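Example record used in the benchmark description.
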Amino acid sequence: MGLFAKFIGAKKRTHVHAPAGIFPAAPLTNEPVDLDRDSLAFISISKPVWAYGLEKVEGILPDKSTRHRRIAFTQLATPGVSDQQTAHPVRTEDDLGKLARGLPLWLAETLYFSNNYTPLTIIGSVGGTRHTLLTKQWMPQDIHQLVKTAQDGLDYVVTGTLTRTGGEHKLSLDVWDVPKFRNRKSFSSQWTAATADTALSTLHEHFRLFMEWTAHLDGDGLTYKTPARPTVWIETLDASLALFLADKASFDRDQLALPSSVFDLAAEQAFSGETASVAWLTLQDRALRLGKLGAPVPVQVSGTALVKAAQLALA
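Model output (C-alpha cells):
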C-alpha cells in the first residue's frame, strides 16, 4: 500500500492544512514510521516558513491573490533506513530529516518568489504529534490522494527520495504533471560533505531553469537571493520550521533540541540579503520566546525598509 492508502484512508486521517499557521503538536523527533502501529498525518506549509508571524507587515511576500500554477513539494522519502540507524536519531536520522524537510521547503520558497507559481510544502507527522522519516516512497496512489485533499487543487507535485551511504548522499526528484498525471521531469544529484553546497546549488539552478522561474517585479515582496551556502540555508529553514511548530503547539518544549551552531550559521548569513535577514529575525524571535536563546544576539542585517519593518513588528 502507499502512504495515503495505508494511513489516511485506513485510519481516517486527513491533511492538516494551515494557511494561517495553526498546526498540531509536533515534538521534534526523527522516528521512522512503523507501518503496523503508527498513523501518519501531514502538515501543509503554504508560504516561506520564516514569514509566519509577519502577516501584518505589508510587502514582505509577493502577492499570490491571482491564480498561479499550484505546486506541492512533498517531504523527501528516506528508504532503506535500518533498525541500527534508527537507534541513533541524533546522528543519522537528524541529518536525513533536516534534508528531507528542509530541501522541499527551499524549493517551495524559491517558487514562491516566482511570478508563475503558488507553492506549498507537505511535511509528514506521526499522529499529528512529532516529525517522522518517510521510509516508503511516494506512489501514484499517494499523489492522487494528495491532489484530492489539497485545497484549491494542484497542477504539479514534486516527490523525491534521499539516501545516505557512508558519507555520500543521493537525491532524486520527480516533477509530476497532475492534469496529465505523468512524470514530467526527473532530477538527480549526489554529494559528500565537501561537495554538498556546489551540488545543491547546481540542482537548484537546473530546477529553476526547468520550471521557468521568473522573479517578481521590484516592489512586490522581498528580493529573493539564492543562498551561497545551500546546506546552511536548508538547516536554517528546518530549524525555523521546528521553532514555528513548537511556538504554535502545546507539547513539552524541552523536546526541542537545536545546537548552537544552527543559530551561529543563521546569524552569519543574515546580512547576505533581505530573505536571510528576515529568516534570522523570526528564528531569533521564536528561539527567545521558547527559551532556546538566552538573550538577543547582535547581528548585522540588511538595512532595507522591509527588513526594518519586520524588526519593528517583532519588537
